[in-house]
Write a structure and sequence with these properties.
Elements (H helix, E strand, L loop, with lengths): L1 E2 L2 E4 L3 H12 L5 E4 L15 E2 L6 H15 L1 H6 L15 E5 L2 H16 L5 E3 L1 H7 L10 E5 L3 E2 L2 H14 L3 E3 L4 E7 L2 E7 L2 E4 L3 E3 L5 H6 L8 E10 L11 E4 L4 E6 L2 E5 L5 H11 L10 E9 L6 E4 L6 E5 L5 H16 L14 H4 L11
Parallel strand pairs: 1-12, 2-3, 2-13, 3-9, 5-15, 13-20
Antiparallel strand pairs: 4-8, 5-7, 6-7, 10-11, 11-12, 14-17, 14-18, 15-16, 16-17, 19-20
Helix pairs in contact: 1-6, 1-9, 2-9
Bound molecules: flavin-adenine dinucleotide (FAD).
């Protein structure tokens, strides 16, 4: 039977980042098993946004660590492979538009926290936001926040880069290979069953995104994550929206937009163009003049409090998991991958993530992230 030190289930941002981080920690006897293609789950469907503007301190720290990989991408991946996928990181900032006093107060508190951690985020007046994005209709907007280190990129290129660099160091990447079972006895894992045959191992990482509940169930571990469909729309035209348009979010409605190649992509909380258009036309009326070329959807991997679920199972030794990112899992993957690799190799943790443990729900210690887009 084939064997591996570690089997990673899921080839999205989290699985690929974990594989790469394991190689950085000297562990290369790893199999990454993906039932579709790399990034074919939520990762490639995402808006590719990365931000430091969170309300939860842990998410800000995770964001800062993750940004290090995105900002130093060419050197990080180029140290291992000749061809470095271009992640097209447009560091144009995130612009949050706020329309109630309550939102303003919450964002001011978060700004103070972000700034205390070295994040260059700042408050803007509605007029300053309008100067940044002249096409905005500012009706009802009473303030905004902006952080120039935030931005957006190509999530599938990030996955390809991590996976290629990991593979160059010995990680075996299996695509089109579903994990169908996990053999365990007495709380210890023995093997992972896949469509391509079993792999003997004592260490498994569940990085199966919105499907993590099903994967956890294979070994009797309850991971409370559910998939929530979110839609995005692409226009090949940009209506004069600037090349450096910030990723702009109307916080009340959830409508957001950013430039994508020659055009623009946008999305929101609703599932149809008719519903999202209502918010889009109100805030960014130029959207109404643009042809829509394509649309797609993917799952948010939601947790009960909209914060990640990261850790090791209580009852099954060395069954690690990371999911439940609730709309911000792509951008957190670098820090999460590093964290999992540190736990697997029993190294000191760069960032303590006990607050993301699955046990918090049973203890009634929900840790709600308020800035969910
Ligand atoms: C429209 C939209 C916009 C988003 N925008 C952003 C954003 O701007 N920024 C951000 O950070 N996040 C965003 N997200 C959220 C983000 O996409 C996810 O949180 C993130 O991609 C999760 O990564 P993952 O690697 O955990 O999961 P996934 O990318 O879903 O990867 C899990 C993989 O596991 C595989 N798998 C499942 N079961 C098995 C099995 N039994 N055997 C083998 N393989 C299996 C799946 O095929 C899948 O490829 C967005 C999501 C959507 C839908």
């Amino acid at each position: 039977m084939e064997s591996a030190d570690v089997v990673i289930i899921g080839g999205g941002a989290v699985g690929a980042a974990t594989a790469f981080s394991l190689t950085q920690a000297g562990v290369t006897d790893v199999v990454l098993v993906e039932r579709g293609q790399l990034a074919s789950g939520s990762t490639a469907k995402s808006a590719g946004g990365a931000r430091l503007q969170f309300a939860d301190e842990l998410n800000i720290r995770v964001g800062l660590r993750s940004l290090r990989d995105f900002e130093g991408w060419a050197e990080l991946i180029g140290a291992h492979v000749e061809f470095v996928p271009d992640i097209a990181f447009h560091q144009v900032g995130y612009l949050f538009l706020l329309s109630t006093e309550e939102q303003l107060a919450t964002f001011r508190t978060a700004l103070a926290l972000q700034q205390s951690l070295g994040v260059p985020s700042r408050e803007l007046t509605a007029a300053e936001a309008g100067a940044m994005v002249p096409q905005l209709d500012l009706d009802g907007i009473i303030g905004a926040t902006f952080c120039p280190r935030d931005g957006h990129m190509s999530p599938e290129a990030v996955v390809q880069g991590y996976a290629a660099a990991a593979a160059a160091q010995g990680v075996r990447v299996r695509q089109g290979c579903e994990v169908t079972g996990i053999r365990a006895e007495g709380g210890r894992i023995h093997a992972v069953e896949t469509a391509g045959g079993p792999i003997a191992t004592d260490t498994v990482v569940c990085a199966a995104g919105a499907w993590s509940h099903d994967v956890g169930a294979l070994v009797g571990v309850d991971i409370p994550v559910t998939g929530e469909p979110h839609w995005m729309f692409f226009s090949p035209e940009n209506g004069g929206l600037a090349d450096d348009l910030p990723l702009t979010i109307d916080f009340s409605t959830g409508f957001y937009a950013h430039r994508e190649g020659p055009g623009v992509v946008f999305g929101g909380r609703e599932q149809t163009i008719e519903e999202i258009a209502e918010h889009a036309l109100r805030r960014l009326p130029v959207i109404g003049e643009l042809p829509i070329q394509s649309e797609w959807w993917g799952y948010y991997d939601n947790s009960p409090d909209h914060n990640a679920i990261v850790g090791e199972a209580d009852d099954v030794a060395r069954f690690f998991f990371a999911t439940g990112f609730s709309g911000h899992g792509f951008q957190q993957a670098p820090a999460i991958g590093e964290h999992l690799a540190e736990r697997i190799t029993r190294r000191p943790l760069s960032i303590e993530m006990d607050a993301f443990s699955v046990g918090r729900f049973a203890r009634g210690e929900h840790r709600t992230e308020r800035f969910v887009v």
